[in-house]
Amino acid sequence: MTGRLERIRAIIAEQKLDALMLTGEVSRFYATGLRSSAGVALFTPEKNVFITDFRYIEAARAKLGGSFTVEMSELARKQTKIVCEYLPRAKKIGVEGDVITLRAADAWKKELAENGLKGVKLIPAGAGVHALRAVKEPRELDAMRRAQQIAEHALEEVLRGFLRPGVTERAVCAELVYRMLKGGAEKVSFDPIVVSGANGSLPHGEPSGRVIERGDFVTIDIGCVTGGYCSDMTRTVAVGEATEEMRAVYGIVLEAQKAGIAAAKAGVAGKEIDAAARAVITDAGYGAFFGHGFGHGLGLEIHEPPNASPSEERALPAGAVISAEPGIYLPGRFGVRIEDVVVLTEGGCENLTNAPKELRIL
After folding, report:
1. CATH code, 221
2. Do the Cβ atoms of 307 and 293 come closer than 8 Å?
3. Residue 351, exposed/middle/buried by CB under 10 A (0-12, 13-18, 19+)?
4. pTM of the predicted model, to two decimals?
5. What is the DSSP letter of 190?
6. Domains in the chain: how many in total?
7. Which residue, 133, 162, 184, sits at the end of a domain?
8. Cis bond leading into 306, ω under 30°?
């Protein structure tokens, strides 16, 4: 954790700030390892300060006392007053521009001015924090592997003993959530997607009361959280039988995924990874039916930078974790998506997903 704090504080010098202030719950957790719904992690060139209220003060002092000065805010001594005490002459404070709202920014500036910091500028510095978060440390990857194992085990149990003609999408969804939590997950990392038949053409369709029938494709997109870190995976299975067209489309998506994974390595722009997969689907005549990016970053959040999409110009760093999830969606008929999660290395990538992905007919 010490090295992480030093890297966070380095953003201050890199952006010529007087301090960096993290108000978002996710980045506070990243910086401190403490889960709290309220608080500020304040970094100056000399100090790390964590400000929270009565609900978390005892936990904060116990967990952070060795690396942070811990302060308790209250009505008579608000967060802004404490910040001013540590930054009596600050002119530029870095904040998470993608987290703090315009209303909150105005309130911060007003209250800082009332406490002596008049004319202070709040400078967007979230990109620096995201860049740090993009490169996963070994313990972060261990948490993601564990989350992935839990999700895979839950999916396998449902495919073997629950998913069959006559059950609804919602029932399958409920069973998956139950089994992930029973298996040790802290929570789901997003609302699961379970769509069947014609509903499968909706990439982010919601589980409905539709009864699964023989001959359906069923697309299942699930993930869970352990140690604060997310997993994500998608499998599409056939129930009872699959037509030749269904088999062909599935094969194209699988080939596209393999092509994207083969192109995925540190130093490659996200759009190049996407292009490798997209070419397979386009060449097969289904380009118009693949309308989202090949993959997104994940970690503490289910969607976070960097991405493997047509608009991602940046080269992705070693240690970044991205999804690999091409799909083909035929409106009113069916859809296929196959998703793994990979961590980029200098020579390629490591696939964190072990679930089989050849076409499975239940």
Report:
1. 3.90.230.10
2. yes
3. middle
4. 0.93
5. S
6. 2
7. 133
8. yes
